[in-house]
């Protein structure tokens, strides 16, 4: 009742309500004064990062109401620049986090050259309308300095509209997540095809993934005929005894029309030549979203979330350095001391368990080395990655770590 009255009061004043009854319950549990100072503290935090570290960030709070937040992580601009022209791939996806503001979390993710997912920037949006995405994408341009060469997202129409507005050159390079596409395909058709005798549903699934994964440019010429056969078989299997489709079945079949319309954005015969660093879906972001949700509860302030996200990305960067160092011992030795120094600087932001775990992992990773294995006729000396003994063996060229 209270929520409904407050929402009506907002509408009468021309304010779009973004809160729910859960938002009000969360607010009631907050210590007095924290909520009032949250946006002020966030603004101070972003200003401090910009002044001391040169990290871009901005807040959009028209009429005193927090609408949008954007901030870039340390090292993100350098990583984005190193990707080089034609190889800047951006993954975007939103998720709802149970915070007092009922905000949507928007992650901007790319892959480094070792294949690790790296969060470049974070946006917090009051809604998932096109104008909000336009604001966030414009902030990305300002914070990272260069627009993406390829962007990967789900089928959200508002994201598509914002991409075409801010990055019109990405019209045919805005690729669609095959995971979300298949989920839509399955939800629409599985209930009609799976109960049928034979392997109708299995055949339909296999055909979908052949379109999504068969990276052969010759498939463009064959696509029309193969798609016609694909859709004809599905429609024939869903026909009723009177030779027609039910109203529900006809509505479900519209998924095929949408897939065909967007074929150049998900069928591998068209998308194979785009550099995506092996990504065909936004599942990398989905896993990151799960990690964030494990931390965030209804009482977390937006300032706490922003600070935690910064620590979280630092830990991911540290693990990325460690994983790469397993294969290149020299690189690890060049970074281990600075990594441990950075961990010690942030010890006040980590609990005892997390700090101890990171230190143990760092110590273990320094025990890996490349040991001579064999000689390849073309590539020369080959090494294998193994653990170093506690006491190094006698100086022997075949046992020297590279």
Attribute tags:
two-stranded antiparallel sheet; globular; 402 residues; alpha+beta
Which band does the percent of strand residues land in? 5-15%
Query: What's the gyration radius in Å?
Result: 26 Å
Largest sheet, in brief, is: 7 strands, mixed
Flag low-confidence runs: 28-37, 325-336, 389-402
- So how many helices? 16
Report the strand count.
9
- Main structural class: alpha+beta
For the biggest β-sheet, the strand order reads 1-2-5-4-3-6-7
**How far apart are the termini?**
69 Å
Which descriptor suits the 3D outline? globular
- Please provide the ordered H/E string of secondary-structure elements: HHHEEHEEEHEHEHHHHHHHHHHEE
Helix content: 40-55%
Arithmetic mean pLDDT = 78
Describe the protein's architecture and organization.
The chain is an alpha+beta fold. The chain has 16 helices and nine strands. A seven-stranded mixed sheet has the order 1-2-5-4-3-6-7, with helices on both faces. Strands 8-9 form a two-stranded antiparallel sheet. β6, α6 and β7 form a beta-alpha-beta unit. α5 crosses α6 and α14 runs parallel beside α16. It is globular, with a radius of gyration of 26 Å. The N and C termini lie far apart (69 Å). The relative contact order is 0.10. The C terminus is likely disordered.
